[in-house]
Write a structure and sequence with these properties.
Layout lengths: L9 E4 L2 H12 L7 H23 L12 E6 L4 E6 L6 H7 L8 H11 L20 E9 L6 E6 L4 E6 L2 H5 L4 E8 L9 H12 L6 E4 L5 E3 L16 H12 L5 E9 L5 E8 L14 E6 L2 E4 L13 E6 L8 H4 L3 H24 L1 H15 L1 H5 L4 H7 L1 E4 L6 E2 H6 L8 E5 L3 H5 L5 H5 L4 E4 L4 H4 L5 E2 L2 E5 L27 H11 L5 E4 L8 E4 L7 H9 L9 E4 L4 H11 L3 H18 L7 H16 L2 H10 L3
Parallel strand pairs: 2-8, 12-14, 17-18, 17-20, 21-23
Antiparallel strand pairs: 1-6, 2-3, 3-7, 4-5, 4-7, 5-6, 8-9, 10-11, 11-14, 12-13, 15-16, 15-18, 19-20, 22-23
Helix pairs in contact: 2-6, 9-10, 9-12, 17-20, 19-20
The chain binds adenosine-5'-diphosphate and magnesium ion (MG).
Adenosine-5'-diphosphate binds next to helix 2.
């Protein structure tokens, strides 16, 4: 057959993640095997998109083979299904890189999660598994590819177990691929149904109808039948599009398998003409918290795919998926120049406003639906409060919070409507967990006065609150920073009466400052404590304590020392006062440190010196309980 010298095939192992993914693919109970075809067709379509884009600058790459198509052939006798395209193709290095590793970000997190939640969790169905899905139906795959503009054709082959080989394609195979990629699947016995014409047509119609290039079924006699409609769905009017069409194009664009939570489809005319089809997913994409914060909205220019990297939406909307197809952006603009292109900038502004507006509409009109959306993406949307000054007020209006009022979500409008008489500001407390926040001593005075406090436990909360936001003309104030005076708000009737007068504690404060000077910035009488002896707050000018802790972890902290606030009405403070009057300096020193350490513990921090803390505490425990323990047990063991 071939007269050329046989070249040895190079063997490569799969990257560890690929092996794990393949294992999951073969062993999971994932039933929708037919998605493998969607994945191969979507790759073929991407390959055509890429070449069409490259050819704008280099028309020779396309030459006279300008009609892009994706072709499917079924060889029933041999049990082989073939998917080919005349797209960009891959050379030997690209075959090894693209079909041996997983570059997609978020994949590792996904695989780890599946590992934890078990193979049968159904999670794999939510993930666009890509090329490797083909191993659900095939026990051997051969990929022959010739890159546009290059001479050599290469053959990649694998049985989906440990690795793959790459070698120059044998002549007979190479001849079948003048340009692009031809994938031969040797189907497993239980997957031979995919050789049936009707089944192929059904699967293509279900998953790939919206693919822009024709998907053709090629018969044994060489006749081709186009299976998809091959038109840009986003160019149609809304009334022509069925909900299931939206779902399929969403899944294909996002690589997720959930339903879109929100679909925004419109055409803009005017300064910029474009069609937009945008989705908010139901589930969080796996790369949502990647440091790169990349968006994935695809930019098309007059039906030609340009890039996924045009930053068409701000970072805080990076969970949105979809397509924007512009009529005005120049086709031959380089991807790098897109960022600065005025047409793109105008589209970005308009689409951002539209998207936030739609989200706001859901927030007002469909509260339940909005709660689900907020629970998935609220953390990301809140980044906009400090990044997008122009839309801060609108984002604050959309935002939902936990608070000391009930367990549900509260909007700032809810909060303002429930403000107490005499209350001027909106109060919040930032911390690391909701449970810990609910137990914070900083809340005591607010609770006593029935003042609602927003409890902010997402990492992003430490940041946006530091930009001193206002809502409805009211300042937002941290209960753990600076001075807080709630005395203008009357006590609730049920509240315990305030201690008559604050005893004179100036001396005590001076002593505490001298004793704890290395650890605290200041010592003050607290306006926010009722039942606890002490708490720590940030000084009015430094960062809030949670933010400082987060910055510390990234080695960016400013080492701001906290202010220790004391409650003169508490017996422990009174005891320190007495020890001071009696000149028992050792006792004062011990109690001062115990006071500071317990304030730290309540905040989830360690005592300054944990061993000394335990030693001091034990000393006072033993002295304090002494004989009492025996007495108590005697009383208890008495028969009734
Ligand atoms: P994804 O499509 O999300 O990148 P896949 O696993 O589906 O992940 O494919 C991996 C990579 O292999 C693609 O990004 C692409 O670079 C390459 N590839 C797959 N199929 C083709 C094809 N038909 N033509 C050219 N490149 C392809
Ligand atoms: Mg793919």
């Amino acid at each position: 057959m071939s007269t050329e010298r046989p070249s040895p095939a190079t063997s490569h192992p799969f990257q560890a993640e690929v092996s794990r993914l393949l294992h999951l693919m073969v062993h999971s109970v994932y039933t929708e095997k037919d998605v493998f075809l969607r994945e191969l067709i979507s790759n073929a379509s991407d390959a055509c998109d890429k070449l069409r884009y490259e050819a704008i600058a280099q028309p020779a790459l396309i030459g006279d083979d300008a009609r892009f198509a994706i072709r499917i052939e079924a060889d029933k006798e041999a049990g082989r299904l073939v998917v080919s395209d005349n797209g960009i193709g891959m050379n030997d290095a690209e075959l090894a890189e693209n079909l041996g590793t997983i570059a997609r970000s978020g994949t590792r997190a996904f695989i780890d999660r599946i590992g934890k939640e078990g193979e049968n969790s159904g999670l794999i169905g939510q993930f666009g598994v890509g090329f490797y899905a083909a191993f659900m139906v095939a026990d051997r795959i051969e990929v022959t590819s010739r890159k546009a503009g290059e001479d050599a054709a290469w053959l990649w082959a694998s049985d989906g177990a440990s690795g793959f080989t790459v070698e120059p394609a044998p002549e007979a195979e190479a001849a079948k691929v003048p340009r692009g990629t031809r994938i031969v699947l040797h189907l497993k016995d239980d997957s031979r149904a995919f050789l049936d014409d009707y089944e192929i047509e059904r699967v293509v119609k279900t998953y790939s109808d919206h693919i822009l290039f024709p998907v053709e079924l090629v018969g044994a006699d060489g006749t081709a039948k186009q299976l998809n409609s091959a038109s840009a769905l986003w160019q149609r009017s809304k009334s022509e599009v069925k909900p299931e069409d939206y779902t399929e194009i969403y899944r294909s664009l996002s690589g997720q398998h959930d339903e879109p939570a929100l679909t925004v489809h419109y055409k803009a005319e005017g300064r910029q003409s474009y069609a937009a089809l945008l989705f908010v997913p139901t589930q969080r994409p796996f790369d949502l918290f990647d440091v790169e914060r990349k968006g994935r909205v695809k930019l098309y220019v007059r039906r030609v795919f340009i890039t996924e990297d045009a930053a068409l939406l701000p970072g805080y909307l990076r969970f949105v998926r979809g397509v924007i197809d512009s009529e005005d952006v120049p086709l031959n603009i380089s991807r790098e120049m897109l960022q600065n292109n005025p047409a793109v900038a105008q589209i970005r502004r308009a689409v951002t406003a539209k998207m936030i507006g739609e989200i706001e509409t859901v927030a007002t009109k469909e509260p339940e639906k909005f709660t689900a959306l907020w629970e998935s993406f609220g953390q990301v949307l809140k980044e906009g409060i400090y990044e997008d000054f122009e839309r801060r007020e609108q984002l604050l209006k959309i935002a939902r919070f936990r608070s000391t009022t009930g367990d549900g979500w509260r909007s700032l409008a809810d909060y303002v409507a429930a403000m107490r008489e005499g209350q001027k500001d909106i109060y919040y407390l930032v911390g690391e967990s909701l449970d810990r926040l609910r137990a914070s001593p900083q809340l005591e005075a607010a609770t006593q006065r029935g003042v609602e406090v927003l409890l902010l436990a997402d990492p992003v909360d430490a940041f946006w609150t530091s930009s001193a936001p206002n809502f409805d003309g009211k300042a937002m104030k941290s209960l753990s920073q600076g001075d807080v005076d709630l005395t203008a708000v009357p006590l609730k009737e049920t509240a315990a009466p305030k201690p008559d007068a604050t005893p004179d504690v100036a001396d005590l404060i001076a002593t505490l400052k001298a004793t704890l000077g290395g650890e605290v910035d200041d010592v003050k009488v607290s306006q926010r404590l009722v039942t606890s002896p002490a708490c720590l707050v940030a000084s009015a000018h430094g960062p809030d304590r949670t933010l400082e802790r987060m910055l510390q972890r990234q080695q960016r902290g400013v080492n701001a020392k906290p202010v220790l606030e004391i409650n003169p009405g508490h017996p422990l403070i009174a005891a320190i006062g007495r020890a001071q009057s009696a000149a028992e300096t050792a006792v004062v020193d011990d109690l001062a440190h115990l006071l500071l350490d317990q304030a730290r513990i309540v905040e989830g921090e360690l005592p300054v010196d944990p061993a000394r803390f335990a030693e001091r505490l034990n000393r006072y425990l033993v002295a304090g309980i002494g004989a009492g323990v025996g007495t108590a047990s005697t009383v208890e063991s008495k028969p009734a």
